[in-house]
From TrEMBL:
<dbReference type="InterPro" id="IPR036938">
    <property type="entry name" value="PAP2/HPO_sf"/>
</dbReference>
<feature type="transmembrane region" description="Helical">
    <location>
        <begin position="207"/>
        <end position="227"/>
    </location>
</feature>
<dbReference type="Pfam" id="PF01569">
    <property type="entry name" value="PAP2"/>
</dbReference>
<feature type="transmembrane region" description="Helical">
    <location>
        <begin position="111"/>
        <end position="130"/>
    </location>
</feature>
<feature type="transmembrane region" description="Helical">
    <location>
        <begin position="28"/>
        <end position="50"/>
    </location>
</feature>
<keyword id="KW-1133">Transmembrane helix</keyword>
<feature type="domain" description="Phosphatidic acid phosphatase type 2/haloperoxidase">
    <location>
        <begin position="62"/>
        <end position="178"/>
    </location>
</feature>
<keyword id="KW-0472">Membrane</keyword>
<keyword id="KW-0812">Transmembrane</keyword>
<dbReference type="InterPro" id="IPR000326">
    <property type="entry name" value="PAP2/HPO"/>
</dbReference>
<protein>
    <submittedName>
        <fullName>Phosphatase PAP2 family protein</fullName>
    </submittedName>
</protein>
<feature type="transmembrane region" description="Helical">
    <location>
        <begin position="137"/>
        <end position="155"/>
    </location>
</feature>
<feature type="transmembrane region" description="Helical">
    <location>
        <begin position="167"/>
        <end position="186"/>
    </location>
</feature>
<feature type="transmembrane region" description="Helical">
    <location>
        <begin position="59"/>
        <end position="76"/>
    </location>
</feature>
Length: 232
């Protein structure tokens, strides 16, 4: 099969979606794509796990599974897939690199297939969607992952195809890790059956979920503020 037409379409789509003349969007994308921006979210998710699990074993199981998502999704990508596939990032691509709109000199590493940002965030999002079973949290986490994906294309450090493959791999990892979580959890012989309106079906309290949603909202406000600073 000849992949060249698909590759060329991917490049043209990247050039159509990459960058803008807006300094605000430049600053917003840089703030959203920075890993440290999302530390409060990770802390909030840990708080959610801490408050809604009965013992240390259960807490450690969830934390280990979340770590496994990142390890299998992003680390496998960075250490194995990117060096083996060796597809140039758009910013380093000899064919179109000069056409890519670069923000603040940010170009990323040499290779970009597939996107670790997409794989990492989507694997974590899928795992917590299945774990918590809250519609509001699920929508918020998927939106968080897709927002991270948008920043990678906007900044020109990933092709849309890199993002799509990253999402597919991340989703597969998230489902696989949750399946492993369920197998281990059952062996702990912990029976949970929640029918109270204060809890989700898996035993997570809505008020604690609201803490995570609030942290996400405040983080977005922070990123918008960072974008506004570029206009000053």
């Amino acid at each position: 099969m000849d992949f060249e037409p698909i590759i060329q379409f991917d490049k043209q789509l990247l050039l159509a979606l990459n960058g803008s003349d807006s300094l605000f969007l430049d600053g917003l994308a840089m703030a959203l794509t920075t890993a440290s921006t999302w530390v409060p979210l990770y802390v909030a998710l840990f708080y959610l796990v801490l408050k809604n699990n009965e013992n240390v074993r259960q807490i450690l199981l969830v934390v280990a599974c979340a770590a496994a998502c990142v390890l299998l999704a992003g680390t496998v990508d960075d250490t194995l897939v990117k060096p083996l596939v060796a597809r140039w990032r758009p910013t380093h691509d000899p064919q179109i690199g000069i056409l890519v709109d670069v923000v603040d000199g940010y170009r990323g590493g040499k290779y970009g297939f597939f996107s670790a940002h997409a794989a990492n965030t989507f694997s974590v999002a899928v795992f917590f969607c299945l774990l918590v079973r809250s519609r509001a949290l699920s929508v918020a986490l998927v939106a968080w992952s897709l927002t991270n994906c948008w920043t990678r294309v906007y900044l020109g450090v990933h092709y849309p195809g890199d993002i799509l493959c990253g999402l597919l791999w991340g989703g597969l990892v998230g489902f696989a890790v949750y399946w492993a979580y369920c197998r281990i959890y059952v062996r702990m012989k912990v029976g949970k059956g929640f029918i109270s309106s204060q809890y989700t079906s898996t035993g997570y309290q809505h008020s604690d979920i609201n803490v995570v949603l609030s942290v996400l909202a405040f983080t977005l406000v922070y990123c918008i503020f960072r974008g506004c600073l570029t206009l000053a």
